[in-house]
Design brief:
The longest helix is centred in the first third of the chain and has 23 residues. The chain is built from 25 helices and 26 strands. The chain has about 675 residues and is an alpha+beta fold. The strands form 8 sheets. The protein has a 5-stranded mixed beta sheet. Strands 16-15-14-18-19 form a 5-stranded antiparallel beta sheet, covered by helices on one side. The protein starts with 9 loop residues before the first helix and ends in a 9-residue tail after the last helix.
């Protein structure tokens, strides 16, 4: 029987193995080295031969066979994957002085006057991906997502021929997370759009959108037809192998394992070396086969990276140096208003469509009324539009000599265009606001609800823009408290909502009732109170009642809270509608752990922890939350400033770094012993 391994001729087994090795070598030469070794027709002949053998003997099919890249059946949805090590963002620099200051901060952090060695590489305009290999075999691929959790796109990644299904070498690591960018070359993008035009389908705006759209296809067979590439630039988890001593050595190691790495990289010393690389790449940017939006500088020595550590969600040892945003000219056809969740009225220029940086722009922000007057932008003007940071379109200036005789200045209306409530502008503020609030203004209601249900707030899955729009427009929901009164009948009547999807939304709403004080504070949408400030407020006061009763002096004792934030919190808590909202949410079952009275104990104040491996009873999120509630902080990497590393089973490179730097290592039991007794953390 062909499916019986014992019945397969040895010649077929040997030939299939030979063909897999040969095709993998040709793939590497073509996609990684950009140096094809055989004509396409000869490659296709070898490929068809392997297909024929595997068709005759299905038991010979292996997960790393080149024939398995063509894509399987469509996926019902993308699963969520939590990154073992967060995929952090990198701070940006735009001017030469930003790079000089970055180099100065690095030298100060390393306590050295000597020049620092940096690794310079490109900032690709694609989609960040984490590739997990276990014992050399690709087992999982996930998008960056929000940095902590991404989408499982393994089936689609397997169709990308630039990515090896098995690492080269005799002794691959037990586990390695390889991080990099999936992108589409300019020539492949042009070919894709030509095919789209021929088929009468919508063209993609730019290579990045094409790459992201191709990788997020639910049908891997569609992804397989798109020419996607990959370049590695970082690492997450590493187990079963020693971490190279430098970033450049890491990328060299990747190349030895068959992982694509961009050739445009260089070692440089000091700020002058960084700026020289930036200018050189800037001159050659248009000739590169792919789109980039800047370059990235990283301290090369891994030990120095660990010494510098991280600030917020970005490493201190790296900086992205962005290229100047691209600009174009177009005409302002009108100026409208966008109403934000706090009532902020943002003037928006409605433009004649124009291509800026590969994207068709029809709207651009004018920020606020004062900015419109300062730039003297009028309806009918010819203006210069820029994609600020290559992302947000903005109007830079108008062209005086092209101003028509019938140009009209913008006048802020007296009433909100959405709810007709009076527009007010508080003293000493640049932003005018709708006075209607959640109850009167649907725009604020929608924005507030979307913020309330967002992942970092109450984390209610299934409540997206379209569903929230419908609920607001049909007056099904007036405040966030109404979400917890929804029934299956009211949800199932919404467009594109069947009983099953409505039931899933209700389950998500029920699940969100059990939350944390920090998440609840953040979800309320208090002006100027972001996620970090909400955590500090929760740590300091320990209960919602204590926060609501706090005066300005008590608020100013909180880290991250200044006079502006304190006044904003006081104004929010003084509004009877907000007090009623909080009471209704609690009455509807929303709850969290609080301190018994006043500020909860903070025995871990001033201490920084790093979590690694699998703990016996706590998930990493649970452990991090308990540390933060006790006043401690949780970092993503080990440095000399780390107080403790909490290690579980299968701890990886973080444990090794801790031992090298002499950082104390404790287990879960020791951590629990440092936390307040459970009766102190229950309300």
């Amino acid at each position: 029987m062909p499916n019986d391994p014992l019945a397969i001729p040895s010649a077929a087994t040997e030939r299939a193995a030979q063909l897999r090795v040969e095709l993998a070598r040709h793939n590497h030469a073509y996609y990684v080295l950009d140096n094809p070794t055989i004509p396409d027709a000869d490659y296709d002949k070898l490929f068809r031969e392997l297909q024929a053998i595997e068709q005759d003997y299905p038991a010979l099919v292996s997960s790393d066979s080149p024939t398995q890249r063509v894509g399987g059946a469509p996926l019902p949805q993308f699963e969520q994957v939590r990154h073992s090590v967060p995929m952090l963002s990198i701070n940006n620099g735009f001017r030469d002085e930003d790079i000089v200051n970055f180099d100065r901060r690095v030298r100060e952090g390393l306590k050295t006057e000597a020049g620092v060695e940096y690794h310079c590489e490109l900032k690709f305009d694609g989609l960040a991906i984490n590739l997990r290999y276990e014992n050399g075999l690709l087992v999982n691929a996930a998008t960056r997502g929000d940095g902590a959790t991404g989408e499982n796109v393994t089936a689609n990644i397997r169709t990308v021929r630039a990515i090896p299904l098995r690492l080269q070498g005799d002794k691959p690591p037990a586990i390695i997370d390889i991080r990099g960018e999936v992108l589409m070359f300019k020539a492949d993008f042009a070919s894709l759009n030509a095919r789209q035009r021929d088929a009468g389908q919508r063209e993609f705006a730019n290579p990045r959108n094409a790459a992201a759209g191709s990788l997020r296809q639910l049908d891997p067979r569609i992804t397989a037809k798109r020419s996607l590439r990959f370049f590695a630039y970082g690492i997450g988890v590493l187990e079963g192998a020693a971490l190279p001593a430098s970033h450049s050595a890491l990328l060299d190691w990747y190349m030895q394992m068959g992982i694509p790495v961009a050739a445009e990289r260089r070692i440089a010393d000091g700020a002058e070396g960084l700026l020289a690389f930036y200018r050189d790449i800037g001159l050659r940017r248009a000739q590169l086969p792919y789109e980039i939006d800047g370059v990235v500088y990283k301290v090369n020595a891994v030990a120095q990276q660990a010494q510098l550590g991280f600030v917020s969600r970005a490493p201190r040892f790296a900086l992205a140096h962005k290229f100047p945003a691209e600009e174009a000219m177009t005409i302002v056809q009108d100026i409208g208003l966008q109403v934000g969740r706090t009532g902020a009225m943002t003037p928006v220029a409605r433009l004649a469509p124009v291509l800026v940086g590969g994207v068709t722009v029809t709207n651009a922000t004018l920020h606020n009324e004062d900015e419109v007057r300062r730039k003297d932008i009028q309806i009918g003007d010819t203006v210069i539009v820029r994609r600020a940071g290559d992302v947000i379109p903005e109007v830079v200036s108008f062209v005086p000599e092209l101003r028509p005789a019938d140009a009209r200045p913008f006048v802020m209306p007296a009433l909100c265009p959405v709810c007709a409530s009076p527009i007010v502008r508080p003293e000493e503020e640049a932003v005018a606001r709708c006075s209607g609030g959640w109850v009167k203004c649907p725009a604020q209601r929608k924005g507030g609800l979307l913020h309330f249900v967002s992942r970092r707030a109450m984390d209610i899955e299934g409540l997206g823009d379209q569903l929230v729009d419908q609920m607001v427009e049909r007056n099904v929901v007036t405040t966030a408290a109404d979400l917890y009164r929804l029934g299956l009948g009211s949800l199932a009547t919404m467009e594109r909502m069947a009983d099953k999807s409505a039931a899933n939304v209700l389950k998500a709403i029920e699940k969100s009732k059990s939350t944390t004080l920090a998440r609840f504070i953040y979800a309320l949408g208090i002006r100027h109170v972001g996620e970090s400030t909400a955590k500090e407020l929760a740590r300091h006061f320990g209960s919602m009642d204590a926060l609501q009763k706090a005066d300005e002096a008590q608020l100013l004792d909180v880290a991250d809270v200044g006079p502006v934030v304190a006044r904003s919190i006081l104004q929010f808590m003084a509004d009877p509608m907000n007090v009623e909202l909080i009471e209704q949410l609690r009455a509807n079952g929303v709850h969290w752990e609080e301190g018994a009275s006043g500020a909860r104990p903070k025995p871990l104040a001033g201490l920084t922890f790093v979590l690694t491996g699998t703990l016996p009873t706590l998930s990493r999120d649970d452990a991090a939350e308990q540390i933060e509630m006790a006043g401690g902080k949780v970092a993503g990497s080990v440095s000399k400033k780390t107080s403790y590393v909490v290690a579980g089973s299968d701890a990886g490179s973080k444990l090794a770094k801790a031992e090298t730097l002499g950082v104390p290592v404790i287990d879960e039991a020791a951590l629990l012993g440092m936390l307040p007794p459970s009766n102190e953390s229950e309300s």
